[in-house]
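> example.struct
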């Protein structure tokens, strides 16, 4: 089996060419390969395993398969917006799904709720899925 892998330089006369001195390497063929006798079993280790290739594609956006990685599950844009409105204490109008408008400033938020401080009325904790949309109080309504 070893002689099927060995290679040797082909002999050719040295020519006075402008090219660099190159050697042509040809593999020595096993005599059994010409008669298509039982093929020898050769393990190929030069290719990465399927899992290795997938991990490489996850690291590189355009790995070997040409696919881009999926976008991140959460962009944190909502959190950034809430933080900005909380720090500047921006007066907000929160329109609920039933059409009711709540005016106040956002005191805090979490994954499911907003706490809205109101001046002359009780503060409210609003469940996020009940919010239709919200806007800054100075801006026009987006109805």
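> example.seq
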């Amino acid at each position: 089996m070893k002689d099927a892998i060995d290679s040797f330089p082909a002999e050719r006369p040295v020519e006075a060419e402008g090219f660099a001195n190159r050697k042509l390497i040809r593999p020595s063929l096993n005599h059994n390969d010409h008669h298509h006798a039982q093929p020898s079993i050769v393990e190929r280790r030069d290719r990465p395993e399927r899992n290795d290739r997938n991990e490489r594609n996850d690291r590189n956006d355009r790995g070997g398969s040409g696919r881009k990685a999926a976008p991140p599950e959460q962009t944190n844009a909502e959190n950034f917006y809430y933080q900005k409105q909380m720090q500047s204490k921006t007066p907000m109008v929160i329109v609920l799904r039933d059409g009711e408008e709540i005016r106040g400033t956002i005191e805090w938020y979490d994954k499911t709720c907003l706490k809205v401080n109101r001046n002359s009325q009780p503060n409210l904790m609003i469940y996020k899925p009940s919010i239709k949309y919200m806007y800054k109080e100075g801006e026009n309504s987006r109805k």
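> remarks
The domain at 77-136 is CATH 2.30.30.100 (SH3 type barrels.).
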